[in-house]
């Protein structure tokens, strides 16, 4: 499994599938973890060589080489009621 591609997939899925900020604590936590601050200069300076793909606005339109959706798995766990 390609870990880098799975991280890219999670970041792209977080943009699309998480509830708006303030609606769900679990989603807000996931957003904080899996949102790339691509417009912040510190992020761009530090990560430019590793995540150049994020500068392309169509980055999330391509298929990532990751066989599972870790975000969907986490969201499914959040829906299950564990007592």
From TrEMBL:
SMART domains: DM4_12. InterPro entries: DM4_12 (IPR006631). Pfam families: DM4_12. It comes from the Eukaryota. This is (diamondback moth) hypothetical protein. It comes from Plutella xylostella.
